[in-house]
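Annotated sample (chain length 681).
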Amino acid sequence: MVPSREVYWNIEGHWILYFLFLVSMVIFVRGFLKTYRIWKVGRPEKRFDRVGERIRTVLVHTFGHQRILREAYPGLMHFFIFWGFLVLFIGTLIVMLEADLGIKTLRGTFYLWYSLALDIAGLLAIVGIVMAWFRRYVLKPERLDSAADDAYALLLIFAILLTGFILEGLRMNATADPWAAWSPVGLAFAGVLGGMSVSVQEGLHRVLWWVHLLLAFGFIAYIPYSKLIHIVLMPANQYLREFSPKGTIKPIDFEDESQESFGVASIEEFTWKQLLDPEACIRCGRCQDNCPVHLSGKSLSPKKMTQDLKTHLLEKAPILQARGKAAGAEGEQPDKQVAAASEAEQAVLDRLLIGDVIADEQIWACTTCRSCQEQCPALIEHIDKTIELRRNLVLMESRFPSEMQLAFRNMENNGNPWGVGWANRANWAEGLGVKTLAGDKEVDILYWPGCAGAFDDRNKKVAAAVVKLLQAAGVNFGILGTEEKCCGDSARRLGNEYLFQSLAQENIETMKGYGVKKIITQCPHCLNTLAKDYPQFGGDFEVVHHTQFLLDLIRQGKLKPAKDFAKRVTYHDSCYLGRYNDIYLAPRQVLKSVPGLELAEMARREERSFCCGAGGGRMWLEEKEGQKLYVMRTGQAMEVNPDIIGTACPFCLTMLEDGVKFKEAEHLKAMDLAEVLVQTL
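Output written by the structure step:
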C-alpha cells in the first residue's frame, strides 16, 4: 500500500472554501491598502536600490532571526512560532497542488516525512504560543505593555493549531490510518479522542473542519487590522533599510530656494519610510530596555516615542487624505486643504508634533548612542527622526536648552565648543616636536587631535601620548595646528546643520589645500564625522582611529610594548567607535598586547555597551533628570573590580573621570588606551 491520504475526506461542499478565501483576501487587501495610504502621506524617499543586499537582509533578519535570537527566551519563543507557521503554510501550499492543480504530491515516502514535519512544526508553534502567553501574562516584563489585541492574536493562532491537531486525531481514528505513527502529535490526540464512536467522530470532524477553516481565513482577514500586520510590515521594513554608512545624516541643501522650512515640525513632513517605521514597530521594548537614557529614569523612551508617532499618524493621516480628495474634487491643490473639518478633526490637526506629541525634553535627552537601533529586530531608524526634530527647533524656532547657545557661539567664533581662542589651538603640542602642515606639508598622515585634544587639559595628555607613540614608531605625520576647526559633530547632532556645514566646508578646503589623504583621529566623533559626513561635501579622506593605527604599528613591529603593566583594566566601548563604526576588536587587541595587563570585561559591552552620556551633543548640556549616565557607567565598571577604566574617546574619558570622582573611588583611574600603551615602551 502506498502511503497517502484523501485531502477532502469526510467533507462535502468544499468548493465553498474558495469563496471564503476570496472574501478573506478582499478584507485583507482593503485593510493593507488603508495602512499603505497612511504612511504614504510622508515625503518621497528612494529605498528600492541594491535589491540583492535587501533580499539578503530579509533572509538574515526575518528568516534567520539574527537580532531576535540575541535574547534566548523571547528569541526561541518567536523562532518556534515563526518557523512552525511557515512550515505549516508551505504544507498547505503542497496540499493545494494536489487538491486544486491535480499534482499528486501526498504520496509515498514524501508523504510520510511531510506528515512528520508538519506535526513537529505545529507542536513547536504551540510551544511558542504557550511561552508567549506565559511571558506576557505571568512573567510580565516591564517593557511589555499588553493590549486586548495581543490576547486576541495569541488565542486565534492557538485555536488554529489546536483544531488542526484535533482534526488530525479524529481522521486517524475514523479511517484507522495505517500511517498514523508518522504524525505523533495527531496520534496523541487520536488516543485522547478514541473513546467516541466512529460516527460521532466523523460528525465532529465535519463541524470542526469548517471551524478550523473559518479560523484560518479569519486570521488572514484580521492581519492588517491588528498587531499581526508585523508579519508583512516587519520584513518590508527590513527590506527597506538604510544602506548608507551607519549614522549618516542626510544634509540640508541650503541653496534650494524651494525649501520653506528645515527639519520636521509636522508628522507628514517625515518621509514615507520614516512613517513606515512606527507602523512596523511590534512594541517588543528591546529599544527601551537598551536605552541608557530611559534606564537612567529620564522621560525618554524610544518605544513610547515611536508609538506616540504612530498614534498621531493614525489620527492625522486620514484627515489629510480626506482633505486632499475633497480639494482635488474641487479642482484645487490638495495642500490648500479646502475641505471643512469637524471640531474633532481640527483638534487633531492643531495638535503640535513638537510639544504636544513629543515633548521637547524627550528630543534633547537622546544621546544618539544608537543602542535602540542596534537592538531593534524590525530595523527601525530612531535617531534620524530625533535629528530632524532638533533641526526644526534650532533652525526654525530657535528653541533649545540655554547651554547650547554658548556651545554654538563658541564654535562660530573660535572653531571649538570650549570657547578657547583659536590662536591657542596648537599650544598643546609645544615642546613635542610636532610638525604643522603649514611648515611642512610633506607628511604621510595628518594627526587630528580634535577640540578635546587641543583644548581640554585632561585630553591634552592623551594627544601627547599619541604623538609620542607615533614618533616612537617613526611615523611621518603632522597637524593642522591653528588651521584645524571643530569637525562639527556636536553642531550637526544638536540640529544646527548650518553651523556644521560651515565648519565642515572650511576644514575640507584646508585639508584639500594641503593634499591630505589619510587622517588619524583620537576622537570617535571626529572619526565618524570626517569619514562619513565630510564625503557629502567633497571631503573624501581615509580616516582611521588611533587604536586601529596603533594596533597596525604593533603588528608591524614598529611599536613593541615591553614594560610590565600589572593592572586590571576594563574597557568601555564608546558608542561612536563601537556601534557607529564596529570597532570593538582593535582596542582590546591593543590592551592584550601589553605585558602583565589583565582585561576584565563589563556585562554591558560591545554592541550592548552603556553610553557615558556625552554623545549627540549632550557633552555640552546638563543632565537635569534621573540618574547621571556617567555615574551609572562608572558603577558598572566598578562591578569587575578594575584598577583602570580604559577608553578610546575623549568625551568618554571626561565623563568617566567625573564618575570616578562622584564615586570617590580613589583607587580607580580612567585612562585612554594610548596612555596605557606609552607607559610600556
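Annotation: Confidence is low (pLDDT under 50) at residues 330-340.
Annotation: The longest strand covers residues 445-448.
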